[in-house]
Amino acid sequence: MSMNNKGKLLGLALAFVAWTGAAFWVGWQSPTLIGGFFGPKETVVEAAKFYPLDKFVLSIPGEEYSHYLLLELAIKTRSKDAQFTLTQADSVIKNSLMKMFANKHFDELNDNKQFEPLQKEALNILSIVLAQNDFDIELDDVLFTRMIIQ
Question: For position 19, what pLDDT does the model report?
């Protein structure tokens, strides 16, 4: 064999080894390389957080005289920037709850069985009112953390 043929043979062998190594590396990395473009995207689910609102006092009609309701509540949401949104929507939230409780009678609110339905009603009302006023927040729950009626 001549020197020229040995060089060509060595060059072909090196090309073959390089090609095989590259094919092996691409095959090994293909889930990472291809999956990044075509694979399922992982969505990060925000953990729900609770945002307490300032307490406020409402007047509730009764049989003989008006009563007062001290209400403290917390909003459960997974929405981003929830604290900022709830601060901006504070007046709308309080106004909606005032309207809701204005239609309630003292005897109705003094019944422990009404606690859960009242929270659900508040959730529905606040979800609607916040959406109508273009506040970008999705409420998971409304929790009454303190409710005192006198």
Answer: 75
User: What confidence score (pLDDT) does residue 12 get?
Assistant: 76
Could you tell me the residue range of the domain that residue 122 belongs to?
Answer: 49-149
CATH code (residue 138): 3.30.479.30
Helix ranges (DSSP H) in 39-105: 82-88, 90-102
- The pLDDT confidence band at residue 33, using thresholds 50, 70 and 90, is low
DSSP symbol at 59 = E
- Token digits for 111? 């019944």
Give the integer Cα–Cα distance in Å for 68 and 58.
6
Residues 53 and 121 reside in one and the same domain:
yes
Let me know whether 38 and 57 are in one domain. no
* The model's pTM: 0.68
- Does residue 35 share a domain with residue 59? no
Q: Which of 75, 93, 62, 69 is nearest to 147 (CA)?
A: 69
